[in-house]
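W.,

You were right to be curious about this one. When I first looked at the sequence I had no strong expectations either way, so I just let the prediction run and decided to look at it fresh. Below is the sequence, 651 residues in total, followed by the output.
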Amino acid sequence: MKKALAPKSPDAFGIASPSPLPIVAPAQAANAPTHVTAPAHRPLGLVMLDHGTLGGADLVRALTIQTRHNARLGDILLSHGMAREGAVMRALAAQFRTSVLAPDCGTPDPRLIETLGPSRWLELRCLPWRRLGAATLVATADPQRFFHNQAEIEAALGPVALAVAPLGRLHQALAECRRAALRLAAETCVAEAESCRSWNSRRFSVVLGLVFLAVVAGLIWAPGPGFIVLFSVVMLALIAGAALKTAAAVSQLTRPRRSATPVSASRRRLTPRKPVVSVMVPLYSEPDIAPRLVRRLQALTYPRELLDVMIVVEENDRLTRVALAQARLPRWIRVIPVPDSTLKTKPRALNYALNFALGEIVGVYDAEDAPAHDQLHRVVAAFDEGGEDLACVQGVLDYYNPATNWLSRCFTIEYAAWFRVILPGMERLGLAVPLGGTTLFFRRSVLERLGGWDAHNVTEDADLGIRLARHGYRTTLIDSVTLEEANCRVWPWIRQRSRWLKGYAMTYAVHMREPRRLWRQLGWWRFLGFQVLFLGTLIQFLLAPVLWSFWFLLFGLGHPLAESLPILAAIAVASVFLCAEITNLSINIAAVSRHGHRFLRPWALSLHLYFPLAVVAAWKGLWEMIASPYFWDKTTHGLHDSVPQPALRSA
């Protein structure tokens, strides 16, 4: 957590000066009451007025906000900078006739935390501190929640004595005393049957080697039939992939267009009580991008008292943490340090940070993201309209640097086709939706039920999309844009794509461990879509050279099928190639014909030269499945980081 949450002096909590309230300390707490009952209390605002720590105008403003959003008054005061944290803590103590936890009160007793478990104490916003005589000292950041759950707490601990403390202090204390357990849970929270952490690289390398030898032997012994087998496999994948894209495109592009409703009006109608939204932003070795990230997050229009942004960093990433400390973060942005481990993946960091999230809805952004200002409002509305089986809302990813070079143009076209045509079409067809890595929002309860993300999968997003579908949940896409930085350098592009394709292969292998069970959970239609999308994509990239070999015929060079391929079969093959290319070109042009990307339409023809790079990436990823299956090939951000402000305002 950020340094502001872990002060070394009492001043940081605002209680260094003399207070009219007693401070609970070890020696005093032994005489604390052995039973706590909910007291009749004065409103917090009036208590702070009496203390002189809140002005009347600020109180009126805070109460007006509370009427609209039904948030806690203390959260409103802190989020809008109307009061200091120490002042709010002292007022809460006075309001509930208790005391503020002393800064020198030591650390909690881990054995007491195990009574309900770390997750439940985090949910209660309480933490049992230590046994003091007949009572157990319990620190809370939310006294009302404590009293609401008092029976459960006393059933676990017996008589209790209450003290108030900042939530950040509770989080830090829990992270310190349960460090090993939280770190282990972040790496193993997904059920082993649905995780790739038990991946056997040696067995895979043996199987892959045997398959390779069999293919080579077949081509040497019978080159014609052997090539026909390979050619048939890749042609089947090509036809199936083209059919899926065509069906998705037709479904999406022919849908009735809905008239846009102003966000503010629709939100007031749909959501009388807005939920708290937690947004996790994982960073790693990105000190330069931190200040720009903060500025973009501050552009979000969601109510500050209901917004909980967590910047998730590795604890040994000192450069990024220093940059964040210098950025003067607002109170609604926190830094969550992730304990060091040999496994350093984005999903592991997200699993760890999820423990400390405050929201009912949990989202994920990438370091370079620039989301539309009203995006969180639209996300909340989508969940309101979607029903209980809607577990995930996926936004549209677009790029703010498409004109940097040829690679960035092709990348933008590819993503426009994927997020504006293919994925929405797949949703409309009732297929399982593989998620993108950012602009994702989940019902927290569902996410926790499924164990979060697979910490060992390098495409944790696609894997989670399939797991959601397997367990009966839906994903929907909304037309709200997040701008990102297109990867526009050749080798970094190959490295990034190799990680994605390696993750696709791992995801396919994990979910196909029990094909019959997967069939039962997904149903035949989604099972077929899963095969076409994952296995078909891998086959097309790995065996693309088989299709390229037909270019030899144009130059009069030899080919295994030159003599054995009948003229009608040759015409059929050429027709399949032509139809597949027309399908891809049509989808790509349609995808960039709106949303300010029309200038990219002529460049859609050049994707013939773009996708061969993915073949190199696919073979690199295949090798890494043997040599380093959990290696996360990090993408560097912030190289072409210029966001046009008008684009940020559009959805």
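Here's what jumped out at me. Residues 1-35, 259-271, 645-651 have pLDDT under 50 and may be disordered. And, maybe more interesting for your project: The chain has 29 helices and 13 strands.

Coffee later to discuss?

I.
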